[in-house]
Write a structure and sequence with these properties.
The protein is of the alpha/beta class and 217 residues long. Strands 3-2-1-6-4-7-5 form a 7-stranded parallel sheet, sandwiched between helices. Helix 2 links the parallel strand 1 and strand 2. The model has no long low-confidence stretch (mean pLDDT 85). The longest helix is centred in the last third of the chain and has 40 residues. It contains 7 helices and 7 strands. The chain has a single domain, classed as SPOUT methyltransferase, trefoil knot domain (Alpha/beta knot, 3-Layer(aba) Sandwich), CATH 3.40.1280.
């Protein structure tokens, strides 16, 4: 009992420490996954890499509607390595409702997909993901990939470069690779912006301190 009591504050302290490393306004969207284990894997990636939120589009009853209930499910906790307890996850019944929610809140969508003719395509590490203030990164179904609905309303198709005989990756691996690159870029941008704001404040304080003070009455 004493060991458990000690571990809780330790986890809370760590959670508070990593807040500054989380990528704000970045959401990972999982569209109609067949396997709940892939949901757990992506939620684990989301938490480990500092993505702010995860949205899951599914009608599976195995995934509860509310995040508070998701946190209590032993299976979800196990397959996500307890990340479900520390990550914000929202469930949507279909692609349209998820897109409507994202667009209403000013998010731009990009999808992970092989090169798609007629769409804006980019190799993962060659694109700048800091140009989007609010970004949702979509991962499609294990078998059929991303839907036409999501594809039509996205601004970019992200391609992971492949150099082997096998030119596909499982959903968990692909999400980890894509989110690593995007979070790396956005985290560096956030830190530089924070430093710039701090520097500007310091200059402002210095200028104010050098201003002549009015004579005493």
């Amino acid at each position: 009992m004493e060991e458990k009591a000690k571990s809780k504050p330790t986890l809370r302290v760590r959670a508070d420490k990593v807040k500054d490393f989380r990528c704000k306004n970045l959401i990972a969207v999982i569209e109609n996954p067949d396997d709940i284990r892939n949901i757990g894997t992506i939620i684990r990636n989301v938490n480990a890499l500092g993505v702010e939120k995860a949205y899951v589009i599914t009608d599976q009853k195995a995934l509860p509607d509310e995040w508070e209930e998701m946190r209590t499910k032993p299976k979800l906790s196990a397959i996500s390595a307890s990340a479900i307890k520390w990550s914000f996850v929202k469930k949507f019944k279909d692609t349209e409702s998820c897109l409507a929610h994202l667009e209403k809140n000013g998010f731009v969508s990009v999808v992970t997909s092989p090169h798609m003719k007629g769409y804006h395509n980019a190799v993962l590490h060659e694109h700048d993901y800091t140009s989007y203030k609010k970004l949702a990164v979509w991962f499609g179904n294990e078998g059929i990939g991303i839907s036409q609905t999501a594809l039509a309303r996205s601004v970019l198709c992200i391609n992971i470069p492949m150099y082997g005989i096998i030119e596909s990756l499982n959903l968990g691996t692909a999400s980890g690779i894509v989110l690593y690159e995007i979070t790396k870029q956005r985290r560096e941008f956030q830190f530089k912006l924070k430093q710039k704001i701090s520097a500007n404040k310091a200059v402002k304080r210095l200028v104010e301190s050098l201003q002549p003070r009015p004579p005493a009455q």
